[in-house]
């Protein structure tokens, strides 16, 4: 088996955590007999510095031709003054749309060792195991018209939240299928008491529910669900929601796991390459110090193995290695430990290689 992965290290701590995650991926592929090719490309601030744009056409074409894409993080104070299409975030949005990845999966599972490191009471977060499915290429982040015009008191800024029933249906189907393979419960989050787009969202998801009789569907308003997420998270199974709400709720869920640095994500479409990235930002304040938490990036590799390379066994092996390392106390500073980025990566590599060797590494 061959695998072509494009690496987009990005900015800040992105190159540090991506490098460690690729080390784990390389070790797994070597043990499993997978011929891995890694191609590095520019995105974000580094791309602006070297090419003048946050998403060079060569980067997008390379990503479209890959089996999977592993992204670090983009942005930082150096580029914060830029506006419009030159923003680092504009490159990220363009990458998602250009790759056609419309469903962002963000698993949130609380490791028992880390319960004491969350800011929420242990008895509240214990047992939390959910997946937030965020629609990724519609809504306010992409809707037209969007503009800023006028000056002084008359200056106006306008964003448009736009969804089609087809956009809602395709991401909802992914969420229903996930729920069917987990605890059979799907929560659809919207703001249907106010927003027209949310009313379409709710109607569309409700219509699809009849095709998944094994899944119990409930609807929740985003404001009350945000409260529920930190009050009763263990009762949440799979969540599906629109782009803006999903961005906010999934970051809020980082509190449950003890740190944003613990959480991975997978962005998937209808065929083509998947885009995998930790959900944390570029963290420029700690960049270059070797202390960034790489677990989110490593767990993103587990999702890459599962969804793009179709090797669920290898993804499970990486997740088990991460669990074991956390249990053994291989922790970064953000979750109460003292190990650096590279040391954690080395621990996970050794653990996963041992596990695969013991299992016979079936190819």
CATH superfamily assignment of the largest domain? Isopropylmalate Dehydrogenase
Query: Helix and strand succession?
Result: EHEHHEHEHEEEHEHEHEHEEHHH
Quote the beta fraction.
Answer: 15-25%
Q: What value does the Rg take, in angstroms?
A: 20 Å
- DSSP helix fraction: 40-55%
**Category from helices, strands and their pairing:** alpha/beta
Total separate domains: 2
Brief summary:
This protein is of the alpha/beta class and 363 residues long. Helix content is 42%, strand content 18%. The longest helix is centred in the N-terminal third of the chain and has 19 residues, at 14-32.
Structure description:
The chain is α/β, with parallel strands linked by helices. The protein has two domains: 1-109 and 260-363, Isopropylmalate Dehydrogenase, CATH 3.40.718; 119-257, Isopropylmalate Dehydrogenase (3-Layer(aba) Sandwich), CATH 3.40.718.10. Helix content is 42%, strand content 18%. It is built from twelve helices and twelve strands. It has a ten-stranded mixed sheet, sandwiched between helices. A two-stranded antiparallel ribbon has the order 6-7. Strand 11 and strand 12 (274-276) form a beta hairpin. It is globular, with a radius of gyration of 20 Å. The termini are close together.
């Amino acid at each position: 088996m061959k695998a072509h992965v494009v690496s987009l290290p990005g900015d800040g701590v992105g190159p540090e955590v991506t490098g460690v995650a690729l080390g784990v991926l390389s070790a797994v592929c070597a043990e499993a007999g997978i011929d891995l090719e890694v191609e590095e490309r520019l995105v974000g601030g580094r791309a602006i510095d070297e090419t003048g744009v946050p998403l060079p056409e060569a980067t997008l074409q390379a990503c479209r031709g890959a089996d999977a894409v592993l992204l670090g993080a983009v942005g930082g104070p150096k580029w914060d003054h830029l506006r419009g299409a030159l923003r680092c975030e504009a490159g990220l949005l363009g990458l998602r749309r250009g790759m056609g990845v419309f469903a962002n999966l963000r698993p949130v599972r609380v490791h028992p060792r880390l319960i004491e490191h969350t800011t929420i009471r242990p008895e509240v977060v214990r047992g939390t195991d959910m997946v937030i499915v965020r629609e990724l290429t519609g809504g306010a982040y992409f809707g037209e018209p969007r503009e800023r015009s006028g000056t002084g008191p008359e200056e106006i800024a306008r964003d448009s939240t736009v969804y089609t029933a087809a956009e809602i249906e395709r991401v909802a189907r992914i969420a229903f299928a996930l729920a069917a393979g987990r605890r059979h419960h799907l929560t659809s989050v919207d703001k249907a008491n106010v927003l027209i787009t949310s009313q379409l969202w709710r109607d569309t998801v409700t219509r699809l529910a009849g095709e998944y009789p094994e899944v119990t569907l409930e609807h929740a308003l985003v404001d009350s669900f945000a409260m529920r997420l930190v009050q009763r998270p263990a009762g949440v199974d799979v969540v599906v929601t629109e782009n803006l709400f999903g961005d906010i709720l999934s970051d809020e869920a980082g509190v449950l796991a003890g740190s944003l640095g613990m959480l991975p994500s997978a962005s998937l479409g209808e065929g083509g390459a998947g885009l995998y990235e930790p959900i944390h930002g570029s963290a420029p304040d700690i960049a270059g110090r070797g202390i960034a938490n790489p677990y989110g990036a490593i767990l993103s590799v587990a999702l890459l193995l599962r969804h793009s390379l179709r090797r669920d066994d290898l993804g499970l092996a990486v997740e088990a290695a991460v669990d074991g390392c956390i249990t053994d106390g291989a922790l970064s500073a953000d979750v109460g430990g003292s190990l650096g980025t590279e040391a954690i990566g080395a621990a996970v590599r050794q653990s996963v290689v041992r596990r695969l060797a013991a299992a016979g590494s079936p190819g």
